[in-house]
Structure prediction request, 250 residues.
Amino acid sequence: MELRRNRGARALALVCVLGGVLLLVYPSDRALLRTIIAVGAIALGAVALVSALRPFRFGIHADGLSIRRPGLRREFRWAEVETVVLDEPPRRDGYPTPPRLLLVPAQALPRELVTARHPLDGRPAIELLVLDQVREQPEQVAEALTQHGGDRFVDLLARRRAAFAIPDLTVGLRGYAMDRVDRLIRRGQDALLSGDAAARQAARGEIERATAAGLPIAQRGYNTSQTDTVLDALVAALADQQSTDRETAT
Prediction:
């Protein structure tokens, strides 16, 4: 499977360049201000256009991964790969961040090649790709990696949803600070995935302490009653797994 570059960045760059040219062509009473804005738009568009036109290749095949993009040109055979992770960083201001692909090699990485960490255990990794750079959906990429990478591929997006699915929280005025809530939910999800009773207990304690102390209120944030319900359910899920662990040990 060959991933195709997303053309959205190229179109936006062209719009910036053309907009700047039009501002320069048509006269105005505020000529200096228009010139400054136009030059800035043209420069920004030109930089983005040069980046969008640089060679790009991301192939997922039976033999391994073939990558050619700015900052990384390399072939990874599957024998050289310990894990490929499809991850999604925590939300920012309530908005989802693009998923990314991380690779943990079978051999230790030189420090200069480490550009990321495994999201669960912190192993040094290489960030291969941010998926908003390509036209394929995360599900399509995951299917190809499952087919060719086998057990080396870990779909953390799917695993987090299976461990604890997060409903869409309503955003409005005077709600809980979104970044704080998102961090707590991610902490709980990753603890559920960890298979470590101590990690689950620590996550449960952190969430309970945060809610008992009162989550910070922001001018724009998550609906408080919905968030309380979600966090209560997450604490219950963490407690249920701890009970299961004790029963298994007995």
User: Anything to note?
Assistant: The helical segments are 8-25, 31-53, 138-149, 156-163, 178-194, 197-213, 224-249. DSSP finds seven helices and eleven strands in the chain. The longest strand covers residues 81-87.
